[in-house]
Amino acid sequence: MQTIQQLQADLQAGRTTSEKLTGQALEAIEAHRQQGGSAFVHVDAESALQAARASDAARKAGYALSPLAGLPVSIKDLFDVKGQVTRAGSKALDGAAPAQQDAVAVARLRAAGAILIGRTNMSEFAFSGLGWNPHYGTPRAPYDEERVSGGSTSGGAVSVAKGMAAVALGTDTGGSIRIPSAFCGLTGFKPTAHRVSLQGGVPLSTTLDSAGPLARSVACCATVDAILSGQTLDASPARLAGLRFYVTQDFIGDNVDATVGAAIEAALSRLSAQGAQIVKFDFPELRELPTINGGGGFSAAESWQWHRKLLAEHGAAYDPRVATRIRRGESMGAADYIELFHARARIQAIAADRLRDADAWLMPTVAVVPPRVSDLAQDEAFFAANGLVLRNPSVINFLDGCAVSLPCGAPGVGLAVCGLRDADQRILQVSAAVEAALN
Q: What's the average model confidence in pLDDT over 187-211?
């Protein structure tokens, strides 16, 4: 599909209708399913078409609720949709009662006139950056069906990349919007965590979770963010010349594969040639993060609190790889948990000092291109790949920052434009400038 702005222009000019766009999305979903694709776990075909017809009638009468009105949007399976069971990519919640009301984010999309096309597949309980799901299938990268699409918003990314939705609603605890955006050639925005409500969703980590869009441009992401957050940010492109882009090799530069490294270097050279300043800086304290998170960090502690009863009753229904990671939180004590907050505050203070003159911090969204599904069969290989895929984006969650992942020169590669807490508006502006330069 086109960008939100292009689709709205076509709707406004009468070149298309919401019913037609929704019908095309449903046809793409069916074709994907016939080909063995697993992007969706539930499709709301009839209700989506009804909503589309109502949107067309309203537009004909002069009403368009928002820039998203009449456009098909996919919803990650961990958000409540009234009348539906929220399974979060798991079989353990098969017996759960249907949701009594929409999650806040879903309600805001519905109120804005978005057409809710269906629920997308994901890593079970959002527990991988690979999109791995043994229950409903593992969605594949659109450019190479042998490779993963990235997670945990795996189906959401595929839904946008393959024209099954104009935008996807996802979540990001350690990169779950940005990783699949990079692997699927999309633009993904992880806002500062507090800006978008996660009420009515299945949590992974209440400290780190954030919600945002996977879409086709920075402008698309800003449009959806305004609806989700209730805050309209000025996302007009910054002037690229003179912008200060900070780059470090510490931690996030380790084990970057050749394809990613070459694409990132080419992007930095292009930005520099157009007048941006590339500033190398040191951040060796980032190498402490594996030790700080050695017991599983916030995700283990906080997911154990939510899952312990469900695991006791339905543990056999979990993917063992997910259950193993959640159970790491059982051995964490209150002192360990409190120490995490102290460590986080210390690293945040260092980041604020090191990046005080930066317009943005640039890094590879992911250190490697999408792994092949066949290479993940053994646990050792799976956990090694998952850790490497999550490593770079999870730094921003740990710092409580914000970031945009942009397509970057090669299939499966993303450039992350990152900022610290509440720098969302500036990061959108800078990302728009980088997007224009790279295109």
A: 98
